Amino acid sequence: MTDLVSQSFPPERLTAVSVLRAYRDGFFPMGCGDGRLRWFSPDPRGILPLDGFHLPHGFRRVLRRLDFAVSVDAAFPEVVAGCADRSETWIDPAIARVYADLFAARSAHSVEVWQAGDLVGGLYGVQLGGVFFGESMFSRVGEASKVALLALVGILRTRQFGLLDIQWVTDHLENFGAVEIRRPVYLNYLREAMVRQCSFPPPGEVHVAELIKPRIGAVEEQSAARVTLP
Question: Is the dihedral of CA 109, 29, 157, 216 positive or negative?
């Protein structure tokens, strides 16, 4: 099992076209911390099976008490900035620039979590056909990033997506059903899912309870409260 990593390259070579081409071949870009970038293709690859997604029991109890609103594509730049706001980050200015271009072309999307009118968490990624490539998530209050993930999975399942790519499996994502698969298997899944004709919902608020009630078991209709977006 060997990760494929390219030689580093200058940020001006990173474009929206090159990023989409790389995703189709199983690669994604990351900053190196020195102003340069590399293409990565992990082996094994982390995915979150949409049919195998599950809520940790502890989170199910917490979810009933949360007071969040969720939206899509309402604050993409702010979500990317939130994901980059940490002591060590691979989201450098070149990455932020190119993903903003992808968002403008409706190839990148964000899920935002709001509390009392403030952006408190979210995630972003790239869509190709029926594939969503999750890039990063952040949380400023407890459980906000989990709510964003829950909303994303509900959206992808409702809209018949075939693959949620998470790049690497972390302990946090493993709790939700994330697994590792070998690169050849991943590439087969990727090719099959990319040909699906799927779409993200239009920008605006989404109702998490409506997404999860018919599709993710053991969660009551009241599991996700909502408030008015700013």
Answer: negative
Q: Where are the domains of the chain?
A: 44-223
Amino acid at 105: A
Residues 74/229, Cβ–Cβ less than 8 Å: yes
Write the DSSP symbol of residue 6.
P
- Each residue of 161-194: pLDDT tens digit? 999 999 999 988 998 899 999 999 999 999 999 9
Distance CA 177, CA 213 (A): 18
Cα distance between residue 142 and residue 124, in whole Å: 18
Q: What is the second-level CATH architecture of the domain 44-223?
A: 3-Layer(aba) Sandwich (3.40)
What the block records as the tokens of 116 is 């009392």
Distance between CA atoms of residues 49 and 24, nearest Å: 19
**Residue 210 to residues 191, 215, 219, Cα–Cα distance (Å):** 30, 9, 11
Give the angle subtended at the CA of 155 by the CAs of 183 and 161, to the nearest 5°: 40
**How many residues can be counted in the chain?**
230
